[in-house]
Specification:
Blueprint lengths: L1 E15 L2 E8 L4 E6 L11 E8 L7 E8 L9 H17 L9 H13 L10 H15 L17 E4 L6 E3 H4 L7 E2 L13 H19 L9 H16 L1
Antiparallel strand pairs: 1-2, 1-4, 2-3, 4-5, 6-7, 6-8
Helix pairs in contact: 1-2, 1-3, 1-6, 2-3, 3-5, 5-6
Length: 244
């Protein structure tokens, strides 16, 4: 009999028989799956749980017991944009991470993101959780093997960094970018080394940047493409910008 216990964040759950097959991101074992008996009511993506898995052997699906420790979705109320960010992050990890493979930092990164998304804010929300989400996608690309280099000009140029090469994922200075501007991706100010305060259009620009590399690099071989939850996040943030 194989068994383990760990903290985990629920990424997804699909009905199967009288229960569900759940995918979770564990603190020490990467992404894992297991059959959960009973109702799916407690299997809400983004929920932190105490997980216990057991099976006859490591190669089997096994059964998964999940004791909820903190459910993030209820903390967000009816905030469509924050709920969409939670769903997008869980869906990207569920689709992007290989099962039973090490995922250093992924659990801690998701915990930090969910904490920021769930936090009540007394200042302009564009300055906090949407920017944190974009930085999280930059880190996700790194974890999936497609790191962006946004700290120095790929061509050795001086001056502010304004664009990113879609081929290499490396930043380019304004001077070096000028002859090729139409072929390059824009680099929002808050992702540059000087970390300018983001405006709504910068957040959407940051998501366009990370989205390009997620679609054309990290998920290029996935026939399903990017998870639909990410498109819903873009739509929700577009609505948030309109009402701001």
């Amino acid at each position: 009999m194989e068994a383990w216990e760990d903290q985990a964040i629920i990424l997804s759950a699909r009905p199967y028989g009288e229960g569900a097959v759940a995918h979770v991101l564990t603190a020490h074992r990467g992404k894992r799956a297991g059959y959960v008996y009973g109702s799916r009511a407690a299997l809400e993506p983004g929920t932190l749980a105490a997980a216990r898995w057991q099976a006859r052997g490591a190669e089997f699906l096994g059964t998964l017991s999940l004791e909820p420790l903190k459910a993030h979705a209820p903390l967000l109320g009816h905030d469509a944009a924050r709920l969409a960010a939670l769903a997008s992050a869980c869906a990207l990890l569920d689709a992007g991470l290989a099962e039973r493979e090490p995922a250093p930092g992924a659990f801690e990164g998701l915990c930090a993101l969910l904490s920021i998304i769930s936090r009540e804010e007394s200042v302009d929300p564009w300055l906090l959780w949407p920017a944190a989400y974009v930085f999280w996608e930059v880190q996700l690309l790194d974890a999936l093997g497609f790191a962006l280099d946004l700290e120095a000009c790929a061509a050795g140029g001086d001056g502010p960094l304004t664009h990113v090469s879609p081929r290499t994922g490396r930043a380019v200075s304004a001077q070096q970018a000028e002859p090729y501007e139409a072929k390059l991706l824009k680099l929002p100010g808050f992702l540059r080394p000087e970390r300018a305060a983001p405006a709504p259009e910068d957040i959407l620009g940051g998501l366009a940047l990370t989205g390009y590399f997620l679609e054309h690099r990290a998920f290029a071989q996935d026939t399903r493409g990017l998870p639909a939850a990410r498109a819903r996040l873009l739509a929700a943030l577009g609505g948030m910008r309109t009402s701001a």
